[in-house]
Amino acid sequence: MQHSKILYEKGILKNLNMLTQSQYSNFKFVGRLDNIKTFYSGIKALNFGEYGSFQITDDGFRVTVENGKTIQASLFITMSCFSEYHVDGIVNFSINMNVISECLGIFSATNCSIKMFYKGHSAPLIIVLEPHDEDNITTECAIKTTNYEEPIDFSLDEDNPSLNVIFIRGPDLSNIFHELDKAAEEIEITLSPRRPHFKIDTLGVMQSEASIEVAKTSDMMMLFNCRETTTARYNSSQIRLTLKALSVASKVAIKTDSSGLLEMHFMMQSEDRAEMYVQFYITPQADV
Questions:
Q1: Using CA atoms, how far apart are residues 17 and 7, in angstroms rounded to an integer?
Q2: For residue 161, is the peptide bond before it cis, meaning its omega torsion is within 30 degrees of 0?
Q3: pLDDT for the residue numbered 11
Q4: 36 within 8 A of 127, measured Cβ to Cβ
Q5: In this structure, are residues 118 and 125 in contact, taking their beta carbons and an 8 Å threshold?
Q6: pTM, entire model
Q7: In order of start, what are the domains of the chain with their CATH numbers?
């Protein structure tokens, strides 16, 4: 990682302020976000694994992190969120998540834009940070990339008759999760077309239990589509990994079916009201 290097003097960037079409052809990917705050929140939510797999296409920008075969999280940013976006085909690479998180954190407390450049295989990911209120300050970082690792293909079958889907307001769900027992070892989630509709149970030290129920008619429930009763138990430490994304989410989609695989979508609005998404897949306890 190189801080505050004048990259255009090294031939990596030919013009920091404006790239011509011919200069775009030197890069496999160029993207600009006018404010890093939501992007930084998404990257922090994924910073539980050492490396993130980046895949950039015409559909958008995706980063995926895994921990073993039990939890996977992805940050997805649509092309419409970028004020500049150029990609040549499909761009894949992996980078250290702690490094990019530290780079973005340099100006995380202020309004700041980010521009990203990637030349191709084995080249570093170049990020240029420019605070809005500081005309004379620019920070450039070059982050080493490694070979792309294909993430596990987790998915829920939309045609499965046991598929249950709810949408709940993010701040309300955040309050619920912060009320849960921090010492709980397991969290059990029930979705049902009948009462209790949406229920969270905790099992903690000395087998102590707590329970929270949310009716489908609750004001915090934005959509309720449950076909069959599903109940599964999860490692609470994995559920807690979602809290960073939940803390900035405007709404959350929760999906599961009879397999117990839990899918959670956290929808975050950027400063210009565009939506970014963090998606988690969490596998259930095998012995329950």
A1: 12
A2: no
A3: 52
A4: no
A5: yes
A6: 0.87
A7: 7-143 (3.70.10.10), 164-282 (3.70.10.10)
